Amino acid sequence: MIHRFRQPLQHTKPRVIGLATRNSNDCFFSTSSSSKTLNSTDPQSLTVSYLVKSCGLSLDSAISVSRKIQSRFTTDRFDSVWQLLNSHGLTQTQIRDVIIKRPLIVLADPTKTLKSNIELFSSLALSGNTLAKVLQRKPVVLESPHANSAVEFFRTHGFSDEQIKNMILKRPRIFTFHPERTLKPKLDFLQSIGFSLSDIVKLISIEPCILERSVQGHLIPAIQALKKIVQSDENVVKAVIHNRNFFLLTHDLGKDVLPKVSTLISLGIPKSNIFKLFMLGVMSLRQTTEKFNKVVRDVAELGFDPKKVVFVLAVRSFLGLKESVLEQKIQVFSSFGLSRSEFFVAFKMQPMLLWTSVRKLRLVMDFFVNKLHYEPSVVLRYPGLFLLSLEKRIIPRYSTLKILICKDLVTRDIGLIYLFRLPEKTFVKNFVTKYQQMVPEVVKAHRGEIDFQGFDINNKALAVH
């Protein structure tokens, strides 16, 4: 008996307490049309009484459970199941919730599949609250004859135990599937169209619900729909794996994606650019069709050419951006005396300007205007600057150049844009390695180890070209 949570019920005829003598739910049960007193000779009444008193179920829940387990219920089997769950860290409330969701679990033989599976899950660090989460989602997994073989199947296909654990937490149902009949065909299909085994492991460990989809009824139609858009199996794989666009294999593309693609095609946007939109992250394709179409219209009205890739960059930039956040970004430039129209001119030059956070926009503007003394309008003419890392690129390179300029080793007409467009290896070769023997400080400057205070107000910054 389970002494930790409850007092054991005497395995004799329960004492009958009528409604008139005691206001308690453990003495009678109601149907929709009537109520009746527990009967010591009625098996269902005895089961209901046991479930209420010994398990803590409400009367309604006890009645519902008793109807599903009918006359097969025994207190010994019930206690054994309870003890097994309790011994692996489940609380009384959690066990009660599992029984309500899966009444037949109290009829299972705990010495067979139940015990084997709970020990399997325990070996994967699933016990207590984490095990309760699994069982509350899909308690039947504890009775599955396929759980152990499913775990072994995933291990042989390169999944780590941590990945398997997370898959059980996310989608316990797949561990009730027969591995060879149900799981393997889906992995084989994904490999047949070009997904590598490492791709599949990444894909399924993050979105295990893919294994709940039918090959014929879902995966093949999804791949065919994608292929019409991105034109090859190779691009299908890229579109799904890049930026974790796993949504493309789990949702109804005919409802969620194809209407948006049709809108883009109707504007004359090449499929190659639509593919680029996929590669930028499927978040933009998960918006409602209404919102997506509005953004596309707004971008067209701003004058973006639908045939150029900047069009889909602009669409991607606007989607998912709240109006209030857009206004905050515009306000950053307004605080430096720039107009709304100047901001949108910069946006047309570099649509990914909107990907930059409000904080970073402010920091970059402050650096160039207040430390380097550039005019705000000049800075905004080069919106690509806002995509660069202030700490890892802009400040280290300017610090390096300041040292070299102060020692008259380079001239100021080197050019701001030239400076930041240089590949890292080229910059290091031309401005660090070349001078490090003569001026050792350039190494520290390039590493960001020297605090850069900017140029003196009377000392002009680099030319802009």
Task: Write structural notes for this entry.
Helix 1 crosses helix 2 and helix 3 runs parallel beside helix 5. The protein is elongated and about 95 Å long. By secondary structure, it is an all-alpha fold. Among the domains are: about 1-145, Transcription termination factor 3, mitochondrial (Alpha Horseshoe), CATH 1.25.70.10; about 320-385, no CATH class; about 390-465, no CATH class. The longest helix has 17 residues, at about 390-405. It has a two-stranded antiparallel sheet with strand order 1-2. The chain has helices spanning about 45-55, 60-70, 75-85, 90-100, 110-125, 130-135, 145-155, 160-170, 180-190, 195-205, 215-230, 235-240, 245-250, 255, 260-265, 270-280, 290-300, 310-320, 325-335, 340-350, 360-370, 375-380, 390-405, 415-420, 425-435, 440-445, and strands at about 30, 35.
CATH level 4 superfamily of the domain at 1-143: Transcription termination factor 3, mitochondrial
Question: What is the top-level CATH class of the domain at 1-143?
Answer: Mainly Alpha
Distance between the termini: 84 Å
**Main beta sheet, described?**
2 strands, antiparallel
* Fraction in helix: 55-70%
Mean pLDDT: 84
DSSP E strands, number: 2
* Poorly predicted spans: 1-41
The value of Rg in angstroms is 33 Å
Tally of helical runs: 26
Spatially, the strands of the biggest sheet line up as 1-2
The dominant shape is elongated
CATH architectural grouping of the domain at 1-143 = Alpha Horseshoe
Output the CATH topology of the domain at 1-143: Transcription termination factor 3, mitochondrial
**Proportion of β residues?**
under 5%
